[in-house]
Design brief:
alpha+beta; Arc Repressor Mutant, subunit A; Topoisomerase I, Chain A, domain 3; 6 domains; four-stranded mixed beta sheet; three-stranded antiparallel beta sheet; 27 helices; 40% helix; DNA-binding
DNA sequence: GACGTGACTTGATCACATATGA
DNA sequence: TCATATGTGATCAAGTCACGTC
């Protein structure tokens, strides 16, 4: 290979661098354990009017046919199941597929729900009454008259500004961020006391382009709206360092089946789902009644497929009690059907509680071994020989040429430390800055191009081949139900891409091998065949109190783990999702008292109590994360409890400016007006400290969460984020949805979604082509406006009986009637309007990520119910995977409110 | 109570697929 | 038909929080 001068891709890295009890106390909160919480949640939810507490998705199916509900009563379906639509389909979709129109479905659903509505309402009031005064020591006051119960709404005014990520973002970018403004709502009465801060603030962008025009005029916006084992040399070392830490296995004495008689010979191990079925059946047959999956026992308590909708509703309501009623009939049913689909909600989810009874899966799939390409990199301009191991790591580095990591000294330092170990002391390569990886990078580009140039048939064949190889790893059978596995692929080796200024970025993430991996599987299930001949799993466990199928120690941080879990659409995940939202809904009943209590503590003499009060206030009002302590070998980011003095600036008379790096090193910049006692308290916490000192020096997340649990069972800091996000969506949708077509309603939804994303500070980097796209749109609009002008002239002339003027090229235009011209003008106007609206949306959302909140914070029942009420096809809001993830929420009552 | 471990959720980003428009 | 925009799923890093141990 020709030697090139190392002109461009050369590194200059030098490896030489080297008082009183808490007011909130409750009677019996000494142990607010999960069980207690679960029962509280169940109680609360059963008292609410969602019309589906504890309910599983009926026969609502995700379009991919993979949601667990879709598998109900099925034998194991093929992964290529036909798409089946949800019952709240778009009219378009339903006309092609079903007899009943979606409207019909909606209506039916509504009337059905209407029946239960009244009862539900009664239930709500009962629930509220029962839960109204959960906090001991807080006297119920007339909320409307008590300023304390309106900690912010009545007194705040401010501007906030959430800025862009990391130091890499320009100041300009920051100034262009959406900047919510928080304002006072003047009303003395505050019927929205349950609402989050945002519901009462007026958050506006301080940049003209950022605020969406259609909404700016609305002063009554809800909350948001206003605010290796890599070769033998490392083997021993790694085995030592990756020894399984003292886990809490259920069956300690039986941890390793690797050498036990139970381990089948490789040839005996089932490798297809078909064989999995057989094994599950065998497993089931051996079980006595107690071991029948509760999900299946539940199955028996709900009528079969032929049940009417109303029966489904009834079944829904008795789900929790049905957990207890295990009846023999279910066992019979179980035996009679191959794979009885569980109802959507699994029985237990508390820590240490049984999560499954039988679990069968095929383990994990490993990335293919490294194939050396033989392209020689250059050292001092000369090609150098590398072993395949050395070349592999060099290639990992070379392909990152175009990334920001290449400008980071830490990245290169860490890479060199690890790579030089692989090279050995006698290797020609002594310094990274004399290396030229260009040839490998060029090779990489060529490979990419080759791949791109493949015909669609070739691509398809490759895809099918991959699917064939992976098929058996994609599914697990949990309590007899086929469920999708999430991340069944073992992470390939690479260079660690820590975010922000992560001290370990660039370190080699070595290849994970079978003996790094611990498998968790049902006791009677066959142990998955190790896919690499001659190797074996590290350990086999049968722990049914956890949901992971496999784990290995993170090679970058060996004390941490990488888990293989079921996919988001699985029943287990759905169950915990639902519990999360129920907990957040429960907070709604407590929030008034919690706010009153922390407001009183702003001025208490006990500094720790003061700090707890102020921190809770910030978490509630600004949706800050809790902020756990971090080690030195992690990126230097903070949350509420770990805020430094220098992260908060007091701006008289009562504004606070927050500026810190949060999760993922995303910058949070926000100036907000706060209540005077909060402002003063922050000032006191800062006094006598340096900028790098902890603002809340008497506080950490465990103290804070322990305190929160005294206020509400199961309450932790993160519940506030879910609560604020969901209630904001609920209120905005309710207030802002107007009559109009579906497109307009979808815009309303997006707007609400955007406000939530702003509250949660969900950012995304501006797309590289953003400015080009904007200029293109501007050009088009200008062009259309020109056309419009011409059309108007032509219309004037046509009305006077004159022919149209010639066009820009001097050609004669068609002589059109005034009516035709008027029609054209209207069409052009509509086009311009649409383009301007698109442009506005694009600008508004250029740094806001909507997806995260939709996936993690917004109770899907709010969305589904809203879609039902306003006849918006759910597919307009949820994509295929969200439909599968939220299958449990699809049969919600249209009148559901968060 | 501090600390470490373990299990889970949350989150930004990237590559690829699909839609859209010239 | 091709180029570009947009949507989607996968990936894996980085959080939260419960619990065990000392």
């Amino acid at each position: 290979m020709a030697v090139e001068a190392p002109a461009k891709y050369v590194y200059d890295f030098d490896d030489d661098d080297d008082n009183q009890p808490l007011v909130f106390k409750r009677n019996n909160t000494s142990s607010s354990k999960h069980n207690q919480l679960n029962s509280e949640i169940k109680k609360a939810s059963s008292q609410r009017s969602d019309g589906q507490s504890g309910r599983q998705a009926s026969d609502v199916r995700a379009p991919n046919g993979q949601s667990s509900s879709a598998q109900k009563n099925n034998t194991i379906p093929s992964s290529k199941s036909p798409l089946v639509k949800s019952p709240i389909l778009s009219p378009k979709a339903s006309t092609s597929s079903a007899k009943a129109s979606p409207v019909t479905n909606l209506k039916a659903s509504t009337s059905l729900n209407d029946q239960s509505k009244q009862a539900s309402k009664q239930n709500i009031s009962t629930a509220v009454e029962e839960e109204k005064s959960p906090i001991k020591g807080i006297t119920e006051t007339n909320s409307d008259d008590d300023d304390d119960l309106k900690p912010l709404s009545a007194r705040l005014k401010g501007t906030s500004n959430q800025s862009n990520k990391g130091a890499s973002n320009s100041h300009t970018d920051q100034s262009q961020r959406l900047v919510p403004k928080i304002e006072v709502k003047g009303s003395a009465e505050d019927p929205d006391d349950d609402a989050p801060l945002s519901a009462r603030f007026n958050m506006k962008s301080n940049t003209g382009t950022s605020s969406s025009k259609p909404y700016d005029s609305d002063e009554k916006k809800p909350l948001a709206s206003k605010i290796q084992q890599n070769g033998s040399t490392m083997k021993d070392k790694q085995q030592k360092s990756s020894m399984l830490p003292g886990k809490r296995p259920l069956d300690k004495g039986n941890s390793s089946y690797q050498s036990s008689a139970k381990k089948p010979k490789i040839s005996d191990t089932p490798t297809t789902m078909k064989s999995l079925q057989v094994m599950v059946k065998a497993e089931k047959a051996d079980e006595d009644d107690d071991h029948i999956p509760i999900a299946q026992r539940m199955k028996k308590s709900t009528p079969s497929d032929s049940k009417t909708s109303s029966m489904k509703q009834k079944a829904t309501k008795v789900v929790s009690s049905s957990f207890k009623k295990i009846n023999k009939k279910s066992k019979k049913e179980l035996k009679n059907s191959k794979y009885i689909k569980s109802t959507k909600v699994l029985p237990s989810s508390g820590d240490g509680q049984k999560k499954w009874s039988t679990l069968v899966h095929n383990g994990v799939i490993f990335p293919p071994p490294y194939k050396p390409h033989g392209v020689k990199m250059l050292y001092d301009g000369q090609p150098v020989d590398l072993t395949p191991e050395q070349e592999e790591v060099a290639t990992m580095f070379a392909v990152m040429k175009d990334t920001d990591y290449m400008s980071k000294t830490q990245f290169k330092k860490n890479f060199w430390e690890d790579w030089s170990k692989l090279l050995g002391k006698k290797h020609t390569i002594k310094k990274l800055d004399r290396c030229d990886f260009s040839p490998i990078y060029e090779w990489h580009l060529q490979e990419k191009e080759k791949k791109k140039q493949m015909s669609s048939e070739e691509k398809k064949a490759l895809k099918e081949d991959k699917l064939k190889q992976e098929e058996k790893y994609m599914w697990a059978i949990v309590d007899g139900v086929k469920e999708k596995v999430g991340n069944f692929r073992v992470e390939p080796p690479g260079l660690f891409r820590g975010r922000g200024e992560h001290p370990k970025m660039g370190k080699l993430k070595r290849r994970i091998r079978p003996n790094d991996i611990t498998i968790n599987i049902g006791k009677d299930a066959p142990i998955p065949e190790c896919p690499i001949p001659g190797e074996r799993w590290k350990d086999i466990k049968h722990d049914n109190t956890v949901t992971w199928l496999a784990f290995w120690n993170d090679p970058i941080n060996p004390k941490e783990f990488k888990y293989v879990f079921l996919a988001a659409s699985s029943s287990l995940k759905g169950q915990s999702d639902k519990e999360k939202y129920e907990k957040a809904r429960m907070l709604k009943d407590y929030i008034k008292n919690i706010r009153a209590a922390y407001t009183k503590d702003f001025t208490t003499k006990d500094v720790m109590k003061q700090q707890i009060a102020v921190a809770t206030y910030l978490i509630d009002k600004l949706a800050l994360r809790a902020g756990n302590e971090k080690d030195d070998d992690e990126a230097d980011t903070v949350g509420c409890c770990t805020l430094k003095v220098g992260n908060v600036e007091c701006i008289p008379p009562n504004k606070l400016k927050f500026d810190f790096l949060g999760k993922d090193s995303i910058q949070y910049v926000n100036t907000v007006e706060v209540e005077l006692p909060v402002y003063k308290a922050i000032g006191r916490f800062q006094t006598g400290k340096s900028k790098s000192d902890d603002l809340f020096d008497k506080l950490d997340t465990s103290k804070l969460n322990a305190h929160l649990k005294e206020l509400m069972p199961g309450l932790t800091a993160k519940v506030f984020r879910t609560y604020n996000a969901s209630i904001t969506l609920d209120e905005m949708l309710n207030k802002e949805t107007k009559d109009g077509d579906v497109a307009e309603k979808v815009v309303t939804y997006q707007h609400a979604n955007k406000e939530v994303a702003i509250i949660c500070n969900h950012q995304r980097s501006i797309s590289k082509s953003h400015s080009a796209q904007m200029s293109r749109l501007t050009e088009k609009i200008t062009e259309l406006k020109g056309d419009l002008k011409e059309l108007k002239t032509d219309l004037d002339r046509a009305k006077k009986g004159k022919p149209p003027l010639k066009d820009a090229d001097g050609k004669r235009k068609r002589n059109l009637a005034p009516e035709a011209l008027e029609k054209k003008i209207a069409q052009t106007n509509a086009k311009i309007e649409k383009m301007e609206r698109d442009m506005q949306t694009k600008e508004d959302l250029k740094t806001v990520a909507l997806g995260t909140s939709k996936i993690n914070y917004l109770d899907p029942r709010i969305t589904v119910a809203w879609c039902k009420r306003h006849e918006v096809p759910i597919e307009k809001i949820f994509n295929k995977s969200l439909l599968a993830k939220f299958a449990w929420a699809m049969d919600v009552d249209p009148e559901f409110r968060f």
